[in-house]
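sanity check this fold:
=====
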Amino acid sequence: MKTIGAWLAAHPLRPALLSIGLILTLGAAAKYSGPAQLERDWFPYLGRTAHVELESDRFAVAPVTDWSYARDGVTGERYIEASYAFDELRAVWFMLEPQPGSQLAAHTLLLFEFEGDRLLGLTIEARREAHEDYSALHGVFNAFELAYVWGTARDLLVRRAVMLDHEVFLYPVAITDAQKRALLTRLLERTGALETRARYYNTITSNCTNELAKAAGFNWAPAYVLTGHADEYLFSRGVIPGDDFARAHARSDVTDFVQALNHAPAASFDAALLSELRRRWRAELTAPG
């Protein structure tokens, strides 16, 4: 068997090529292993860091994205502040957005429903710079910071169903009122921590789904990495209610409804969406326990 020295001596360019490769590897490692940053030239949608004011009985978060979209792109950029009392929290909805071309990958987010048919959403994403495209492979090596983006339901759903032309599925989350409040509180706390100390996104350990699972106190599961099956896994655990996953999955498809609702007045979006969701999930939402 040839030694490494013999292999290198067999061709005069091999040492140089090996040195170049080592330099590039070390340079990449230095980039990915350095501290996460709060200030970069961020992609516009991910450019603002949310500020949270958290009290024992209520909270406020800003900015909340409330952008508008059409098929050909962004039509308006608006930010608002959201303020709610915790005792106004009524329900939690889980959204799954399959990624085209793969049955294993999906983006997930949560919508929190409050008294008066009001919705507040949270999407956890890789915080890309303006020149960057998302890559799951690069995300394994800390190529992106982590972003907690709070937004209106209209922004978060229309962006996906209309501008990106992706499928959107919405499921009710069957947890207790105490668990809903604890989940929301933990996510607000994690948002507040990101305002002063950046963290890395990681495709395996800190992605859109397992960040939510950690906040919910769930144990690790493969579906938190293979996120395209997150809804089926949550259904198997009883977190998504129903007696048959295929029927629940079909019922949860709100793609066409959201696309049509984009033409309605923005102020009526939450109430119209919740009315449709309650109609579809009436039996599960009224089941005892």
